[in-house]
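Below is a concrete protein record.
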Amino acid sequence: MTCDRSSSDRFDFKVIKTRGESEPSVLRNAILAILSAMSMHSTGGDGSHEANRAYYDEFSQVYERHRRPNAADGYHALVDDLEVELCARYGKGRDILECGCGTGLILERLAQFARRATGIDLSPGMLELARSRGLDAVEGSVTSLPFDDGSFDVTCSFKVLAHVPDIGQALAEMARVTRPGGVIVAEFYNPFSLRGLVKKLGPAGKVGKTTRENAVYTRFDSPWEVPRIVPPNTRIEAARGIRIVTPAAVFMRVPGLRGMLQRTERFLCDSPAAVLGGFYVVVIRKA
């Protein structure tokens, strides 16, 4: 089996027969079909600032419906916890920037242990809610951050880079505003995961009265693609996988199953199984 990358950045899995090799088995073909189905690279809209802004302005109206404080112990709460805890390893008592802070749910928690916590977001609708929490949040784009070089010790982004077509520019900007020796905590959508498979094959969820998730540009970058897109003069220091075994958020609403999934996700998140996380988070150290 080989993995060829086409001009569209999609990975296509092919079977190459060697001399004397028998026909591929049904099981092998099934595995190849699954891998091919999961290897999507991008979906949705054009990724322009205008399109993304409109999408998230509408999403802001219902964004917190299944998140804290409205749902204190569910799927989104666990995902947020695993993201915040990773930032805490590097950001206690330091200056932190969150790129794509949304309504401020994570930024508010970062501010509890950071020396200074700042957020930036493209959506005025999201920012209105973040500012109502008393947070330092400004409007802007991750591809052109309105901050001086070396302004922060930790620059993080969750569920945002996947909606940026020019992800290389976004990562370069995050590295630029990070101080030498500091870290960039960047989250990617992993196609080779249960979440990736569900997003590929399942229906798109609603984010508003008429808008669904597939209306926004969404890219998927596998763990082995990530090292090729990190900025120069940086190195990947650690990785965490989030949503490794949870097929869908609805499974977290089952009381007995919820606890089992939560424990399993925590047990696996920093293990080699991290490469199977639907959300693949890397810690990038700046030289």
In short: Residues 1-21 have pLDDT under 50 and may be disordered. Residues 39 and 163 are 17 Å apart (CA to CA). The domain at 42-286 is CATH 3.40.50.150 (Rossmann fold).
